[in-house]
Amino acid sequence: MKINVGDRKIELKENSLGWAKVLEIPIKIEVCEDSFLHIGATPSPLSEKKAPIFKIKGKPAIPASSFKGALRHQLELLFINNIEKFAEKFNIPDDKKDVLKPCIPSPNPTKAEQELLNLKMYRGKMEGKKYVGHCEIKVEEDKINVGDLGICPVCYFMGATGIMGFLRVGNFIMEGESDIINQTNIRIDRKTGTAAKGAKVEGEQVKPGSVFKGKIEVVLSTPILEMQGIKFGDARKISDVVIDKWLEYWEEKNKEQKAKILIEEILIPAIQNIRILGGQKSRGAGKVSVSILSE
Ligand SMILES: [Zn+2]
Prior knowledge:
- Keywords: Antiviral defense.
- This is CRISPR type III-associated protein domain-containing protein.
- The chain is of the alpha+beta class.
- The chain has one domain.
- Helix content is 21%, strand content 30%.
- The protein contains 6 helices and 18 strands.
- Strand 5 (55-56) and strand 6 form a beta hairpin.
- The model has no long low-confidence stretch (mean pLDDT 89).
- The structure holds zinc ion.
């Protein structure tokens, strides 16, 4: 499939994994010049190093889970910021626009998420201290219940508990020689201008300019979906109940075109909007630029 990324045309490779047909999107992540990257590994009691970074076979890596979290967040923002545009694109009736609102995938939203929730940017609501409204499929006496809004567009891509998403994200491995700095950072007390007490932080970091490569796969179809005549871009059904209600009104019927639009206008922009990854953000870490490779 040929897709447009800015003014570039990129040919995406189709692959058969047996259980699914997928489209590969090759991705490059570069650590910005004014920053560094720290994605912590689970501390090992045997390691002498303090704050080691995540590695695969000795090479620094960005774990899929980190990237997924950042991508989910960017997809949420994309739908929040473009609800009118997408309502028009997907032919959603005026009184049904809420189907485009993302859910918060946790019962304990962050402060920022709660603010957006108060502004009705997300679906669902707070009941006491818990958020109610995340995507799920309930089976009640053999009947499928997905609520009035169905599965949200973000979970369509990323998946939710018990619901397959159409994206598969792998780990991103650092290119070239591992260039890690083992830095001791001393925080300066602003008042006294000397080293703050107990402020020595030791840890590994990936240098600015480092490049990581990996890929995202878009599941185009699976044998089960195929039996129902459903591909990526279509609304899915479970025993005749439409679960992806945000796609149910779309007048576009060409399946290839549908997949292309979701990739070009939703997935690619969300990927490119990722600007920060990993930890130690308060120290200026994690600034990245993410781009689509044209192999
Ligand atoms: Zn959701």
